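Re: [ENG-882] Designed sequences occasionally contain unexpected residues at chain ends

Forwarding the minimal case from QA. Structure tokens:
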């Protein structure tokens, strides 16, 4: 088992959610469709997942998988086959329930993250958006339901030894950046490599410089987080999430962002949004350790329209609406329109 989350950091900072990048070695790549690039082509029939029968209503629109056929329209013999479906779905919440004490957060939440997707999770405060990220990342366990990694149920936390934790690399960027104040930028970005690899220090410094360059930062390794602007701290957190250990087998990665543009001015937000996109597009193949998909929890309208392709709207602990970023702007669904306009009239009620 090659779980590499610093135990001291995990135990000491769990309350403030200061976690580092989680990485695992690849046991083996599952067979199935291999999608090149970071998004699907437009208006092509979705790969057959139902025993040879095609479903014209299922198409790839604007480069996103969209499952437009409800369960009631499928015949019993047309259930998706596991062999062709698992390799496309990287992460899945299946009828997940989660409560903290007497407060029920998720009440049967189900959705999938497929290879090549840029997904936004939105909704009113307290609907479980950040909780879904922590469940998908393996930092929390569901009270009921399942979290699946490439079709394999995850048992326990990501630190526990099981096959699901060996199939996908997961990085997480928290809202507060969660940098160690007492460490320099270089030490923050290279923390995983310093603590959990035998790489020479010179090679670690080189990898750190490469990771910082990916997010547009140069000659900042010697600085401390307190010497950086909010936008620069966000970018350092991104660099830490994408830092690569070249001593182990490459595997595809899913990045998770919790409010990546919170507290930033509009220009700094645009820089971060474009950076998220560019990090996703850059790898030529997910098999080389590239970012296959990413998930963003956000309230910010510009992030919704610029940085994601598919949107999942949570309300009262369940998925209330799903659609593309374009459909988010045009749908007449009351809950979406209320959220988009900030109206006090609608299904979302405070107080």
């Amino acid at each position: 088992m090659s779980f590499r989350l610093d135990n001291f950091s995990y135990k000491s900072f769990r309350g403030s959610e200061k976690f580092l990048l989680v990485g695992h070695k690849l046991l083996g790549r599952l067979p199935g469709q291999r999608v090149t690039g970071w998004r699907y082509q437009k208006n092509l029939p979705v790969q057959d997942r139902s025993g040879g029968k095609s479903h014209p209503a299922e198409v790839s629109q604007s480069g996103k998988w969209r499952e437009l056929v409800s369960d009631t329209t499928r015949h019993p013999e047309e259930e998706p086959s596991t062999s062709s479906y698992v390799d496309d779905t990287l992460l899945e919440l299946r009828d997940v329930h989660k409560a903290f004490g007497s407060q029920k957060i998720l009440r049967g939440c189900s959705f999938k993250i497929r290879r090549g997707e840029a997904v936004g999770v939105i909704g009113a405060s307290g609907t479980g958006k950040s909780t879904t990220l922590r469940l998908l990342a393996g930092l929390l366990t569901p009270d009921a339901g399942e979290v699946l990694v490439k079709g394999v149920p995850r048992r326990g936390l990501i630190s526990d030894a099981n096959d699901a934790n060996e199939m996908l690399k997961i990085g997480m960027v928290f809202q507060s950046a969660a940098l160690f104040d007492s460490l320099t930028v270089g030490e923050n970005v290279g923390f995983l490599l310093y603590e959990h690899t035998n790489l020479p220090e010179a090679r670690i410094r080189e990898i750190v410089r490469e990771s910082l360059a990916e997010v547009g930062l140069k000659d900042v390794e010697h600085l401390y987080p307190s010497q950086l602007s909010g936008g620069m701290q966000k970018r350092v957190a991104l660099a830490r999430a994408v830092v690569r250990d070249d001593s182990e087998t490459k595997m595809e990665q899913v990045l998770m962002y919790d409010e990546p543009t919170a507290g930033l001015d509009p220009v700094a937000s645009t820089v971060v949004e474009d950076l998220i996109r560019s990090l996703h597009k850059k790898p030529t193949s997910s098999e080389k350790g590239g970012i296959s998909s990413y998930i963003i929890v956000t309230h910010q309208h510009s992030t919704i329209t610029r940085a994601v392709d598919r949107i999942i709207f949570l309300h009262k602990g369940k998925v209330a609406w799903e659609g593309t970023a374009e459909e988010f702007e045009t749908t007449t669904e009351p809950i979406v329109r209320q959220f988009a306009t900030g109206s006090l009239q609608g299904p979302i009620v405070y107080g």
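QA comment: On inspection the terminal residues look reasonable. Confidence is low (pLDDT under 50) at residues 1-86, 283-288. Proposing we downgrade this to a documentation issue.
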